[in-house]
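[Help] Beginner question about ligand-bound structures

Sorry if this is basic. My supervisor gave me a protein sequence and a SMILES string for adenosine-5'-diphosphate and asked me to "get the holo structure". I don't really know what that means in practice or what format the answer should be in. Inputs are pasted below exactly as I got them.
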Amino acid sequence: MAAVAQETPTQTRTDDAVVRIQGLQAHYGARQVLHDIELTVAPGEIMVIMGGSGSGKSTLLRHLVGLMRPTAGSVELLGVDITRAPALEMQRLRRRIGVAFQGGALFSSMNVLDNIMLPLREHTQLDRQTMEIMARLKLEVVNLAGAEDLMPAELSGGMVKRAAVARAIVMDPALLFFDEPSAGLDPAVSSALDDLILKLREAMNMSIVVVTHELESAFKIADRITVLDQGRILTVDDVAGIRRSDNARIQNLLNRRAENAEVDAETYLRRLTGEAAPAGDPQAAGTKQDAGAV
Ligand SMILES: Nc1ncnc2c1ncn2[C@@H]1O[C@H](COP(=O)(O)OP(=O)(O)O)[C@@H](O)[C@H]1O
Ligand SMILES: [Mg+2]
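Answer (accepted):
No worries, everyone starts somewhere. Holo just means with the ligand present. The predicted complex, written as structure tokens, is below.
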């Protein structure tokens, strides 16, 4: 964990990487939003992807989980190039990967236990009783034991997130992706979620990629932090390296975190539903490149 970060502050451990992105370019239509992305994640590592609103964090994550295909470059997860893998290999890979997206995305018509059992139903032939036991174990991991029969509408924001995490880990994935785990949560709840992420790595030895704009959270959980800026990687470094960086843009990011936090959740949701930012949106106008381009 920390040792990995200290020994390899930059991307040198590529031999046994669980994530390896090479030469990735991404576009929305004609507009390029990610440039020359190179990224590796070591086994057992927590890699945090940071950056201001509109810097490309969510787009990068969409490429990592196969929701978008790069216009150039490759994305390897657990040794499989997901830009080229045949369907069967992708299906096998998906069982080893957990994804907890913002909002939780629980099915409102199912209780918590059924929501968490969904991946087991989809990917395994286990009998119902075994699936229930596995789901209950994961509910304990996320501190939701006793909430089995509740419907999503009865859960608090923090509980929804934790239920989504339980579902993401029910198959014991080797690799786990989080998008904005603490967005919209009060500080105490979001801090508990950080603890949960650390616990998952310790107890289950998962490699975890977390996208966040919350600096405090990033500093607490990261082995290394990748800082995105206008679609490019500005730096990859451990927490100490980011803290002492004298790069003006990184310092800017550190100092302006409150502003970003306020607007990002909204713009994020809008983008997730595919709506472009309206003209004059302060986020879109936040950088010269973005102004008027969306
Ligand atoms: N669905 C989309 N269609 C067109 N442009 C998009 C879409 N989603 C994001 N963008 C643009 O791509 C850039 C990166 O966005 P995004 O990856 O959402 O950044 P972040 O998650 O860091 O806020 C932004 O300029 C944004 O306006
Ligand atoms: Mg985003």
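A couple of things worth pointing out: The longest helix spans residues 187-204. The beta strands are 19-28, 31-41, 46-51, 72-77, 80-81, 97-100, 175-179, 207-211, 224-229, 232-237. Feel free to follow up in the thread.
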